[in-house]
Amino acid sequence: MTLALSIGWGSTLAIKTIVVLTVIPLGALILGYVFLLKMMSHMQSRLGPMDPGGFHGWYQLVGDGLKFLQKEDVMPAQADRRVFAVAPAVVVMSTFLVFLVIPMGPDLVVKDLDVGVFYALAVSSLSVVGVLMAGWASANKFALLGALRAAAQLIAYELPLLLAVVGVVIQAGTMSLQGIVLSQQHGKIFGWGGLGEPFLLTQFVGLALFLVASQAELTQTPFDMPVAESELVAGYMVEYTGFRFLFFFIGEFGTAFAFAAIAATLFLGGWAIPGVHGDWANILGPPVLFAKLMIIAFFMFWVRFTYPRLREDQLQAVAWKFLIPLGLANILLTGLFKVAF
Amino acid sequence: MPTIPKPKLPGLIGGLGVTLKTMLRPAVTVQYPHEKESPAPRARGVIALKEENCTVCMLCARQCPDWCIYIEGHKEQRPPRREGGRPRSVSILDRFDIDYALCMYCGICVEVCPFDALFWSPEYEYSEFQISRMLHDKVKLGEWMETVPEPEPLETGAESGKR
Amino acid sequence: MSTTGESPVPSLTVERSSMRHLADAQVGVELDTGDMILNLGPQHPATHGTLRIVVRLDGERVVSADPVIGYMHRGYEKLTEFRTYPQVTTLINRIDWLSSFANEVPFMTAAEQLMAIEAPPRAVYIRTVLTELSRIATFLLFLGEMGLQVGALTPAFYGFRDREYVLNLIEAATGGRFHPNFNRIGGLKDDLPWGWIAECRSTMKVVLDACDDFEDLVLGNEIFEARTQGIGIIPASVGAGYGVSGSNLRASGVDWDLRRDRPYLAYPEVDFQVWTHPDGDSYSRYWVRLQETREAARIVLQCLDQIPSGPIMAKVPRIIKVPEGEVWVETENPLGQMGYYVISKGATGPFRVKIRSASFSNVSTLPWLLRGVYVPDVITILASLYFILGDIDR
C-alpha cells in the first residue's frame, strides 16, 4: 500500500474486520432493496415501496430490520436452546468467511489464500450445517423435513458448483482469486490485450453452470422447494422470529452477494479494468467489482422471479443427470484446449 | 396434441423476455392517497337522499335485503288548499338512517323508490374508525346529494330515457 | 406416479381406515412410525378459500385424501325462501364471486321462463357480452394464480392487472365491480353508458395480448410443463361419472359445451370454437382455459358488432308475482355447469331454489384424484381444478 501511513498488523486486522462486517449487511440490504423490492415490483407491473424515506422507499429494509430487532425472542418449549440460538449464527458466519478471500483491488483483500477458490466453496457449504441445526433444534417435525430436503438439495448442487469452477482454475492456472483476476487482466484474446481476457468468453458453460448451481445453493426459485414448503407447511425457518429471522434473511442475501461477487471475480474479471494498475486500481476496484456483481445478481434474480419451482425429485435429477455430466465435459474440453494451445 | 402454429423460442428464454418487457414499461400502480382514480359515474359508492321528494312510503326500507334503512315519520294536517275543503295530511320524515356497516350496495332501494328520492353517488371515501359513525342520518345523506353525477348519455341504439 | 384410469367405473367405496383418521385428524401429530396425517387446513394459501383436505401420507406419497367442505356454508337455499326475486339476485351474485354476472343469468332466465316473458334482443346481447366478460375475468385470475401455486410469482400480478381493465368495464356498465346485480326479470337494469362499446373493444385487445404473455411466460415454460404434464389425469369416463363439468371435462377430451349444445342467450348468433384437449392432466386444463379466454374475447367482439338497438327491458308489472310452476335452467358458467331448479308458488319470491354448483362436483373427484401423488402435486392439482369455495359451499 503506497499510502503515507504505516499501520501495524493489529490495526489492519481491525480495519479488515470492520470492512467485512459492514459490507455483508450493506450488500444484503442493497441487493434486497434493488432486486427484491424494486426490480421484482417493476417486473410485476407495480412500484414497490415508495413512501419510507421519501425517495422511492429506500428506507424500507432498514425499517424492517429495526422492526425485527425490537420483537420478542420466542423459542419453542421443547427446542434445544443452545443449538436453536446458534444455528442462524452458523449460517451467517459462513457468509462472512467467504468474504475473506474476495479481492476488491490489487491490495484490497483480507487474505489472499493460495487455495482461495477451494476455501470459498468449502466455507460456503458450512451453511448446510446451520440449516440442519435449525431444522433439528426447532422440535417441529415439518421443520425437520424441510431442513433435510434443503440439506439434500444444497449438497447435491455443491458438485456442479465445484465443477464449474474447476474449468476456470485450469484456464487460469491458479486457485488464488487474486491470481485469477490478474490472469484475466493480463490475458489476451487472439493476441489483443485491450479487453483482457474475461473467462466469460471461453467458460460460458461454466458460468451458466455456476449460476444455476448458485440459484440452488441459495434456495431460490426454481429450486426453492425447501423454502416454499410454506405451500404446505413452513420450511426450516418456521420457528424463528425477530432477530434470529433477520440473521437468516441477511444470510440469504449476503450469500447471494457473495456468490455474485465470486462469479464476477471468476468470470468477468473482478476488480480489474484492462490497463488500470496500481493505486487507481485500488480506488476504482470496489466500484467496478460492485457493478459487475450487480450484473450477475440481476440475472440471478431475473430467473428467480420468472420461473416456477421444480419438484424435489426433478431438482435432484437435474443436478445429477444433467449438470454434473455437463460440468465434467466442460472440464475435459478446457483441459484439452489448455494443453493444445 | 393440438398446437397453435407459432414459432417459439425455447420456453425458458421466452418467459424471461416477458418479464424484462414488463420491467421496462411503466408500472400501473396508482399511488393512493397521493393520486386517486375516479370511479365510473355509475359506480355504487354511497346513497344520497333528496328529502323533499320523500313521502315516507317505506318501500326502500321494506325491500332492503339487509334491513339497513331506518325510517320514522309522522303525519301532519295541513289546512285545505281551498275554502271548504278537507284538511290534507302530509307525511313528514323524522328519521332516515342508512347503516352503511350493513348495506351491501345492491341498489334495490334506489331502484324501487317511486318518487326518485334516492340516488347513487360514486363517492367511496367515508371510512370511519368507529362503526357507530357508519350510520348516516338524513342530514349527512342530504350532503351526499352534491356528489351525485348528472345522468350520463347512453350508448347508441338505446331507447332514450327509459328502462 | 399419477393416477391412470385402470377401470372405467370409478371406485366409490370408502375405506374404513380413512374414515377413522378423519375423526382424529389434527395439526401437529406425534411422530409415529405409521402414516402421517397432514391437514391442509381451512386456512391455507393453496386451497383457495376455506377448504380442508385431510391427507394421509406415506413418506412423500399421498395414501388417501378426504376433502372437508362446509366451512363457508351460508345457507343460500334457505335464505332464498324468504326473499323476493330482486333480493335473491343480490344473494346469487355471491355464490361464485369471481364471475358474479354469470350466476345471475340462469336464475333470471328461470324466472322469465316461469313468467313466459322474453327479454328483448338488445338485453340478450348485452347479457352475453357481460357473461363473457365475467368469464374472461375469472380465467385471467386462474391463469395468474396457477402460475403462483406452481411457484412463479409474476403471472399472478399480470392476472390481477389485466383483470382490472375488465372489472372497470363491468363497473362502468353496472355500477359494481364484483357484484353487478344487473339482471332483472325481463331484461337488464340500465343500458350501457356512452363510449362503453369502444372501451370494450380496446380492452379485448389488451386481454388478447395478455393471453399471449401468459402463453410465453407460463405455458411454454419447460419447468411448468415438467410440473403439470401427467399430473392429475382425469379420464373422461371418471370425470363424467363424478359430474365434472366445464373446462375440466373439456380438458379430458369430452366435447361438451352448453353454449353450443343447449344454446341460450345470444350464443346461436355467434361463431365460436369449443376447445378440447385429449390429455386430461393439469397442463391441459391450463391450456384449455387459456384458449377459452381468447375465445371469450372473440365472442365479445362479435357480439359488440351485432348489438341491435331497442329497449332494454320487457314489459313487466310493477310488483312481480311469478306464476306457479317449476323450471330447471342450466348454463355454462366459467367454473362449469351451473343450474337452478326454481319452484314458484305464485308469490313475490321463489318457494324453493336448488342450486347445482359446478365446483361441488369438481371437488368430489379429489379423493380419487389425489391417491398416489406426491405432496407438491397436490397443490398443482388443486390449482388446476379451479374451484371457488362460495360455489362449493353456497
Short description:
The complex is a heterotrimer of chains A (about 350), B (about 160) and C (about 400). Chain A has about 350 residues and is mainly α.
Mean pLDDT of chain A: 83
Q: Spell out the CATH superfamily of the largest domain in chain C.
A: Cytochrome-c3 Hydrogenase, chain B
Largest interface: B-C, 40 and 51 residues
Q: What helical percentage do the residues of chain A reach?
A: 55-70%
Question: What structural category do the secondary elements of chain C indicate?
Answer: alpha+beta
Oligomer: heterotrimer
Return the domain count of chain A.
1
Order of helices and strands of chain C: HEEEHHHHHEEHHHHHHEEEHHHH
Structure description:
Chain A has 341 residues and is mainly α. Chain A is built from eleven helices and no strands. Mean pLDDT of chain B is 83; it is low at 1-7. The longest helix of chain C has 30 residues, at 121-150. Chain C has two domains: 16-68, no CATH class; 76-393, Cytochrome-c3 Hydrogenase, chain B (Orthogonal Bundle). Helix content of chain C is 47%, strand content 12%. Chain C is globular, with a radius of gyration of 22 Å. Chains B and C meet through helix 1 and helix 3 of B and helix 3, helix 6, helix 7 and helix 8 of C.
Task: Describe the protein's topology.
The complex is a heterotrimer of chains A (341), B (163) and C (394).
Chain A: H1 9-43, H2 60-69, H3 81-98, H4 116-124, H5 126-137, H6 141-172, H7 177-185, H8 204-217, H9 242-268, H10 278-306, H11 312-340
Chain B: H1 11-24, E1 46-49, H2 59-63, E2 69-78, E3 88-99, H3 108-112, E4 118-121, E5 135-136, H4 138-143
Antiparallel strand pairs in B: 1-4, 2-3, 3-5
Chain C: H1 16-23, E1 36-40, E2 52-58, E3 61-68, H2 76-79, H3 85-92, H4 100-115, H5 121-150, H6 154-174, E4 183-184, E5 187-188, H7 196-219, H8 222-228, H9 236-242, H10 247-250, H11 258-261, H12 282-306, E6 325-333, E7 336-344, E8 352-356, H13 358-363, H14 366-369, H15 375-385, H16 389-393
Antiparallel strand pairs in C: 1-2, 2-3, 4-5, 6-7, 7-8
Helix pairs in contact in C: 4-5, 5-6, 5-7, 5-12, 5-15, 6-7, 7-12, 12-15
